[in-house]
Every structure is written in C-alpha cells, then in structure tokens.
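Collaborator request log, item 7. Partner lab (contact: R.S.) asked for a structural prediction of Bactericidal permeability-increasing protein to inform their binding assays.
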Amino acid sequence: QIDDLAEVDYSLNRLPAVFQPFIDLDLKGIVFPAGNYTDSPYVAASFTIPNQSESMLYLAFSEYFFQTSSFAYYTVGAFNMTIAEETCSYFNINTEIFGSIIPEVAKYSVTPYPVMLKLMATEIPIVSLEQDSFTIEIQGSMEVLAVLPDSTTQSLFTMNIAANTSISLNIFDQKLMGSLCLNR
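Returned to partner:
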C-alpha cells in the first residue's frame, strides 16, 4: 500500500539474475487503486539500464510505472480538489477580484463574496520520461463559485485547462531536489 488511495504490485517478473559483481532484480511496477486491482490501459515497454558499476545500487523506473500511477490516482479522484478560504489560509480571493477581470462577474455580484475553486482532471494525466526530466500533461477544468452568506454556492464560471509541465530531478548535498517548469 502506497497510501489510502493506491497500491503497488512490485512482484518479480522473472527469477533474479545473479552475476559475480551484481544481482539483477526485474520487478513489476504496477500501481492501481487501493483495494481494486484493475488492468491498466497501458502496455509496458521493455528498457535497458546502461551498464555502470560506480555505485552500489541502481534503481530504474519505467514510463509504465508513472503511467499506471497516474491512472490509479485519476481513477480514485485524487486530482480533483476544492480550494476555499477555510481549507487554505493564504487563499483569500473574492468576487470583486474576478469582477475586475471578468465584467460579467461584476454585474452578477455587487457585494464581494468569497470564492471557492473546484479543480478537476478531465482526462488521465499523461507522463512522459525524457533524457533529463519528465513531462506531465494535464487536462482539466476549474469551476469558480461564489460562497453566499447562507453558505450556499453559486457558480460564476467554468474554464477548461490544459497544462504541460516538465520536472527535472537533481541531487544536491545528498538531497533529491526537483525543479518545475510550466511549458504551456
């Protein structure tokens, strides 16, 4: 079990290959929704690890591992979230701010009300491994709702979102660090 949402099958694909200087363990790496082992819509492609011998341990993760992770978390709704003032202390946006950008919101809401954002992935995020980084493509939608005085909500507008992000991982001072770049 990875967390409350997903599990991983890391059983052996074949018997370990034992050589004089090393052992080669070929493990599966399929992530699936917790308690619901489902077949993945992806096909695993074989890959080879460059022959190196400077380190004691080498780990390799395939694109398939990340694709099944994305599928599992999408299936259980992990990419859907609601951002509101109550759940996020630094989030303090109201209808007045949106009204200055979108005139229709200003016409609808003369009194400034707090807003709530509902973010939802509309397709399984696509993960692609590249030479020195990996890319995540996410399709989603965002609904902006006004929170009225009686705690009900009124939808102001919905927009579709397409994001393409690259993440590069490096090791600095024995710590794994990542840098995030929004491509589009």
